[in-house]
What does this fold into?
Amino acid sequence: MRIGRPARRAAGSAAPVRRGGGRLSVAVVLPLLVAGLVAAVTAGIAVGSVAVSPADTWGIMLHRVVPGWVEVSWPATHERIVLSSRLPRVLLGVVAGAGLALVGMVLQALVRNPLADPSLLGVSSGATLGAVLVVVSGVGLFGVYSLPLSAFLGALVALVTVYLLARTGGRTGSTRLVLSGVVVGQVFLSASSLLIMTSGDPHASTAVTRWTLGGLGGTTWQTLTLPSAVVVLLLAALAARTRSLNLLLAGEEAATTMGLAVGRFRTEMFLLTALVTGVIVAVSGVIGFVGLMMPHIARLLVGADHRRALPVATLLGAVFLVLADLASRTLASPEELPVGILTALSGAPFFLWLMHRESRGRRGRP
Amino acid sequence: MSHHGVHPASLSLRGVGCRVEGTDLVRDVDLDVAPGEFVGVIGPNGAGKSTLLRTVHRTLRPRTGSVRIDGEDLWALSQRALARRVAAVLQENGADFELTVDEVVAMGRAPHKRAFSPDNDDDRRLVMTSLELVGAAHLAARSYPTLSGGERQRVLLARALAQEPALLVLDEPTNHLDIAHQLDVLAVVRRLGTSVLAVLHDLNLAALFCDRLYVVDHGRVVAAGTPAAVLTPDLLAEVYRVQADVTLHPLTGAPNVVLLPPR
It folds into this structure.
């Protein structure tokens, strides 16, 4: 059955056996990231205007879960700070960071372009406009769900618009993609700002800043529920579809020949990513570049196969946003910086490096 | 029986017509592939060969006519069920993400796997066997985007083999390959024993490997039959507008086309 020639060729070429650019095993990376997340969460809760020791931090949380298990050795104020203020905020960092990283990873596979990100593609700006419409008009047909629902619809409109504008053939070219995203994003963002400025809100300019340079301040347990639910939903949906995401990397026609119903899958993914982006933006404003950076770092660490890259990107996003939020609270203390400023400051150079790397990579290829 | 113990499929197209953006690219095509048969589709550029193939690997729904695999309407099957029977190697082979070669080939196992089920030893063995068959086993750990065009083409054929198809659809499977690999790849496909429908550019390779040929021009089948019956100077003049001399080669027994310079 074997044919002669290939054997000769195999022996003749000293093929580099370094596996896809020196990858690490997920068995090493995942435990490290989980440990990193525990450390980041601990720091996020302990550090602040009132310092709480890491031991007390965990003591307070354990005491809350199993009363009497640990001896109370902390002042009551610490307990209140940890449980009602810092813990929900840090958990929102975990949820939003993980969610944005997942959305970025899905968008990159959908458009087959590594430069995709919910903020760069204008999806976050679409969500902002949706949210601002509800806030300014005061029309809330669906009670507390009006804001996230409207943000979801805004995100979906922006996503579909950019996708249709940028699409040429099976692959979505970087230039068209990024330009379409920027244009659509600017239109939605300007519309949002205009709405706020003309709304007669005495704190209009503060409100614009809050939406466009997101932050996790003022998070309560109530704000946390819906984002947690949709991010868990996305994570579960994606965990079952890692093979399908891999197939998309082969191109839409090839994916079809390997059994993927591409049209239906794309619709599902558009709805899910718009939902998660909308819900996150509704509670935190636009936090850019997390969805761009985390999937990349994950692929550099463990390769592009979604079965490995997806959990790694999720954890990376969570760790990153918790730490970025911690920095935003402490760098200019007692002032609080919008966390979106910090993610953009680290994300923009990353984006430029990626563009450089991509153009260099293409030249070297056949 | 093919190398992986899958019974080769039969394919039959009746009255197939396709229209893309208002243009009829394929008109009233009847075409058959018997189980285990290697059937070639030849014709000039823009004749509608790739479009015809798209109705079989199901990326374009025909406007008229029927496409049947083992007697079943191919368009009534689910995409997944079809992918367990028909695999394709397309012309596009772009790579924008850092997947390794064995990961690319492992994609071919997707239609056979359920959600959450990891690749098992059988899958891994099949991936390696497929790579060995196309002479690319030494590339298994390489990053796919760093491969040459010819190497990618062989890897994509290995991916199609890992799909364990009963029918293999190939769109110019040799166009990036050097002559040694052109022969290798077609010989491997021939030896598999699966049914094959392939668009081929090189008339002599088509004559050497195909049981039967369909000649497509302006979206219609203008001739069909064994290579010796189809590849005649008259037909080549009519379809390709070239002067050619065709002889039966003494060693291969297949028709050998020699193109003559235009007078």
In short: Confidence is low (pLDDT under 50) at residues 1-18 of chain A.
